[in-house]
Amino acid sequence: MHFALRLAAFAALLLTSYSDALFIPVKRDMLCNGHAALCDRKYGNTTFLGSHDSFAVSTSVFALARTQEVDVPSQLRRGVRMLQAQGHMNGGKLHFCHNTCGLYDGGTVEQYLKDVKYFLDRHPNEVLTFIFTNPENLSVDKVWKPVFDSSGITNLTYVPPQPVMSRGDWPTLGEMIASGKRVVVFLDKGAENKTDPSSAFILPQFQMVWEDPYDPTDPKWPCKVDRSAGPLAPSQQLNLMNHNLNVNLIPVGRGVRLPDRLSSPRTNGIRSILKHAHNCAPLVEDRSPNFVMLDYVNVGQGLEAVNRLNGFAFNS
Ligand SMILES: *[C@@H]1O[C@H](CO)[C@@H](O)[C@H](O)[C@H]1NC(C)=O
Ligand SMILES: *[C@@H]1O[C@H](CO)[C@@H](O)[C@H](O)[C@H]1NC(C)=O
Ligand SMILES: *[C@@H]1O[C@H](CO)[C@@H](O)[C@H](O)[C@H]1NC(C)=O
Ligand SMILES: *[C@@H]1O[C@H](CO)[C@@H](O)[C@H](O)[C@H]1NC(C)=O
């Protein structure tokens, strides 16, 4: 009896050490955006999962202006590493809104950035990109930059060594993480005209990132350069795939387009995303896209598709 107990205790001890050896991950600090291989990969050679109008969250099918069903912290936990959003002035403060703040008001940009910073502070080995739009041409120096400062996130932002970075010029994710400058900020317009040197982290998107047509309605995912600016050729810029399918309610002119929630399991499936990437590849010297931007990031296999585009066979 006594001997049997001792034997059991010994066996338990053995099992514990064995399972520890098997399951305790070593060198976790060597992961960059979840993968050791990405530490040596240049930012410009990486594919990131993106969230379209990331702030426009609702679970109600009647909220027609929604594009997401889970909030920004949940999107980040699910692997989103590029956040897109639209800035509008509302009551004297910069808000993220969908077309107008009357249609959908996602709250202040300051609070949004604070929420993202909270996540980044707790996940020090993650590189994140913002691609914001500035439809009201609000001043970068006087409106946008102060909000970054008051949220506390400016200290994490990356300031490139030269005004225009080609895709090969970017540092590796490992270098960005080591320097603590691991947030890249693009703005669609106005950033080319900033004058305050301390706004240098707000980068003119179309000089460095081109997009194919936005609000697409064709599930065959044709790809062409839609918005891009010089001096670089699009093939030397980063590229963003607008992979958010819309239904056109009134197909006259641009019509009235709404995010197609019913098709989203297929749209956000691996086949559909890889097909779109394949269609864009000839425009970028047969590379993968840099940003795969989706509606309803909680639906489908967006992260698995992005992992494949980064050359990882498994979602881990
Ligand atoms: C913003 O500027 C662009 C030109 O850069 C102009 O076409 C557009 O009308 C302006 N929008 C507003 C709201 O001022
Ligand atoms: C800014 O970030 C650096 C790391 O990159 C950190 O050491 C420093 O404490 C931060 N400063 C502030 C004011 O948060
Ligand atoms: C930025 O400046 C250029 C020329 O200097 C001008 O054409 C353009 O409209 C300006 N854009 C904004 C958003 O102010
Ligand atoms: C990164 O480089 C590899 C090897 O050239 C290429 O297959 C892949 O498409 C590139 N990805 C991006 C996003 O540039």
Automatic annotation (TrEMBL):
It comes from the Eukaryota. Pfam families: PI-PLC_X. GO terms for molecular function: phosphoric diester hydrolase activity. Residues 1-21 form the signal peptide. Keywords: Signal. Gene3D superfamilies: Phosphatidylinositol (PI) phosphodiesterase (3.20.20.190). InterPro entries: PI-PLC_domain (IPR051057), PLC-like_Pdiesterase_TIM-brl (IPR017946). One of its GO terms (biological process) is lipid metabolic process. The keyword Methyltransferase does not apply. This is PLC-like phosphodiesterase. It comes from Laccaria amethystina LaAM-08-1.
